[in-house]
Amino acid sequence: xxxxxxxxxxAEGEHPGCRGPRAALEPPRxxxxxxxxxVVQVTPVGWSARCSRHGDTTSAARTG
Amino acid sequence: MTAAADERxxxxxxxxxxxxxxxxxxLERGVGLTEQQVLEVLxxxxxxxxxxxxxxxxxxxxxxxxxxxxxxxxxxxxxxCPEDCHFxxxxxxxxxxxxxxxxxxxxxxxxxxxxxxTGATEFCIVAAxxxxxxxLLSQVRDGIKAIRESGNDIQIACSLGMLxxxxxxxxxxxxVHRYNHNLxxxxxxxxxxxxxxxxxxxxxTLRMVREAGMEVCSGGILGMGETAEQRAEFAVxxxxxxxxxxxxxxxxxxxxxPYEAYEPIEGREAxxxxxxxxxxxxxxxxxxxxxxxLTLGDLGAEKGMLGGVNAIIVGNYLTNLGRPxxxxxxxxxxxxxxIKALSDTL
Lengths: 64, 346
Ligand code: SF4
Known about the structure:
The structure holds two protein chains of two kinds. By secondary structure, chain A is mostly beta strands. Chain A has one domain. Helix content of chain A is 6%, strand content 23%. Chain A is built from one helix and three strands; from the N terminus they run E-E-E-H. A three-stranded antiparallel beta sheet of chain A has the order 1-2-3. In chain A, a hairpin with a 3-residue loop joins strand 2 and strand 3. Chain B is an alpha/beta fold. Chain B has a single domain, classed as Aldolase class I (TIM Barrel). Chain B has 15 helices and ten strands. In chain B, helix 10 links the parallel strand 7 and strand 8. Chains A and B meet through strand 1 of A and strand 1 and helix 5 of B. The structure holds iron/sulfur cluster.
């Protein structure tokens, strides 16, 4: 699995910038399955992100 | 009480104390602070912060009233911008993780609907461009028409970069009532922040917008390496512009941009800026925009609302997330601050 904020493997390194308060204000930018950069649309109440390989995900899906 | 403590209290402040001067000049007469006075406010000791915010709140209540204008924003065209604003994750010149995206018309209509549901009276359509081309203007035109056809009468603002006179006229014809174009920072600091266009070019767009009868919205971002002097300079340059609205953003350092490693402004400093800007701009709508979540947190946001701010962006921003809109609406209810109704804006 890959970090959605920097695209590096989740288990690799510390990811200090990806787990702080700033990252909490960022939608995912990288696909967790393949680390491709996603096309992200932020809306007033959520976000949607599209990976060219793994398709769409939305904030609604993430929060259940 | 010691002499020093006594000097700090409002009632016994010396006559040349900048807050005492502001009380007479700004609160009583509605005349904004000068650059030197703003600088003095920014240099007040931290233990004067509460006095400053209390005065700024009185000024806001006196000259603007108790209502709070609520706005939602949407990015119609994200990323890939040719400009090099060093704070911006949407510049195509920096290795940021933001990819280009276009929102379609149904998506725009839905965003306007979501915004109206919060009670917001303003919906701002934003595009990451130097200035709009025919395709973008056509998308905006179709989008506004579709929003209206959906039965949504929310006020529509746009932020599409630098404009020609012809484009200004087109936006007026589309029914856009307010145009946002931030001066971003003090004129003297701007060349350190942006090299692909000038502060004066931005000013020219704002001048045309005003002359065409649209409301002018222009603010900027604090925490981009500007000095206290430049913050005071910026406040007074905004006052000279005399916009309807000033959005205050605090830098969220964006990965991949030249400002990625900048430290966010500290909360007390941000609140001091809020108070100082209110005293420089007594009659202007002062809006909390991006970065308040990181800089101020929940408690600081309340202090800002009680320290001169009278407008907020609710929900998410263009590429960053905000706190849930309901949390801000609850905050306003707790503070007993009425949300400006659409009927008041028409
Ligand atoms: S013009 Fe706007 S979108 Fe483009 S880089 Fe500057 S701030 Fe970002």
